[in-house]
C-alpha cells in the first residue's frame, strides 16, 4: 500500500477583527493559516502572545485550536488578515481504489511559521483571494498552484528552522561535553537535555559532527589529557580522574587508540605546533623549533627566515583574520595561544590547546614553560643565561652614562593615540625598567609598574610623564606615522626635557615587538647604542 500526503485549499477569505477591549474567542475546527495584512493587536495561541504590528505575522492553527484576538494598548485599529482553511489528507493506494483519509497528526506546531518569507506569502494570498472569486476551471487550477507554492515556501522555512534547532541542540550537547568531560556522561542523558529521543539524537549527532557521540567524547577527553600531560606534573592516575576515566590503565588504552602512541611516548615526541601569537612563534624559533603554522611579525620573519623556509612554515601576519580556519586546515598536534584569545573554545575542538596567561606569567616564565613543552630546557637556560650576562655588562656601562636621578619614558604612537608603556608590556619595557633597572617617571611608576601594560593619554598630558630619555616606537600599520609627525612638530613635544637635550630615540616597532631572548638580545644592543652615543 502506497501512502502520500495531500494538502488542499478548502477556502480563503479576508477577515477583519475590529478593535475590542475584551478578548474575541475563535475556535478553528480544521487546519487554518492566518496571514496578517495590517492593523495592530494581540493574538493569543496556546497561552503565547503575538503582536502582528511589530512585524508581519503568519500563524498556523491545528484543528481544535482556540485563538483569542484583542486590541493592543494604545492601538485602536483592529486586525485584517487572510484566513486559509487547509485540508490535510493521507492518500492511500489500495488494490482496487484510492482512498483519502484526514490526517490525524499535526502538520505544524501551533503558532508563528515562515516569518522570513512573510511578504511572499502575503503577495500569494492576495492573488489567491482574487482568484477565489473567479469561476473558470483555469482559475481553480491556478489557485491550487499558488496554494502549492505557498505551502512549499512554508515547508522549506520550517525545515530550515528545524535543522537550525537541531544543530543548536547538538552544539549545546558538545559544549556540555567540553565543560563536563570529567563526569559520567551518557548518550541518553544528552538526548534528554536536547529534548530528542536517543536514536534520533545519535543520528543527528553523527550527521552534524561526522562522528558518533562516544568517539567525540573520547576525543575531548584525550585532548584534555594531552594538555594535562604537557602542563602539569600530575600522575597518569590523577590525569585519568581529571578527564573522566576510572583509572590510568583505561586512559592509556584510550590514549593509544586515539593517538597511536602511549602517553609516555607522546611527551617526548616532536609535535607539529600552531602558534597563535607572534611572541610564542619567536620563542619556538629561538629554541630551534619550527612551527607548522605561525603568526609572525616582519622582524622575526626576517631574523629566522632560514628556519622558516626549511620547515615549510605557513606564516600569517599580525593582522590576519580567520586564523582558526588556517589552524583547522593545518591539523597541528598542538596549539599555543594566550588565554585571552577570543575563539579559544573553537581551537580546543581542533587539537590539544595550551593557553598561557598574558598577565600572570612574566615573559621569562612563558619562555621556560614553552621550553618544557618542546623538551628544550637546556637550550632555554643557555639563551637566558647569555642574555642575563649581556644585561649585567650593559648595567655596568650605564652607571657612568645615566645618572641615578634620571628617568626614561617609553611611548608607542598609533593613529590619534599615544600609549605610555609600563614594565610588562614589551616595546623594551621589561629590558629598560626590570632588567637594566632604569627609572621610569613617577607617574609611570605609580600607574603602570603594578601590572598594567600601558596607558593611553592625549598629547596634552604628555608633559606629566616628562623624562630625561624618551624611547619611541611607531606602529605604521595602525596609521602611526602621520600622528607621530604631528606630535613631534608640536610645541608641547618640543618643550619636553628629553627633546631639548636631544635624547629622543625612535626604535623599529617590529624589532621591539617580541620578548623572546633572541629578540631581546638585539633590542639590548640597539638600546645600548642609543645610550652610549
How would you briefly describe this protein structure?
This protein is α/β, with parallel strands linked by helices and 533 residues long. It contains 21 helices and 20 strands. It starts with a strand and ends with a helix.
* Percent of sequence in beta strands: 15-25%
Q: Uncertain runs with pLDDT below 50, 5 residues or more?
A: none
Total helical segments: 21
Mean pLDDT: 88
Structural class given helices, strands, pairing?
Answer: alpha/beta
Number of distinct beta strands: 20
Task: Based on Cα principal axes, name the global outline.
Answer: elongated
What value does the Rg take, in angstroms?
35 Å
- Percent of residues in helices: 40-55%
| Termini Cα gap | 98 Å
What composes the largest sheet?
6 strands, antiparallel
InterPro entries: ABC_transptr_periplasmic_BD, Bact_iron-sidero_bind, Homeodomain-like_sf, HTH-like, HTH_AraC, HTH_AraC-typ_CS, RmlC-like_jellyroll
Keywords: DNA-binding, Signal, Transcription, Transcription regulation, Transport
Protein name: ABC transporter substrate-binding protein
Domain Fe/B12 periplasmic-binding: 272-533
Please tag this protein with its features.
533 residues, 21 helices, HTH_AraC-typ_CS, transcription regulation, alpha/beta, 5-stranded parallel β-sheet, HTH-like, DNA-binding, single chain, 6-stranded antiparallel β-sheet, 22% strand, HTH_AraC
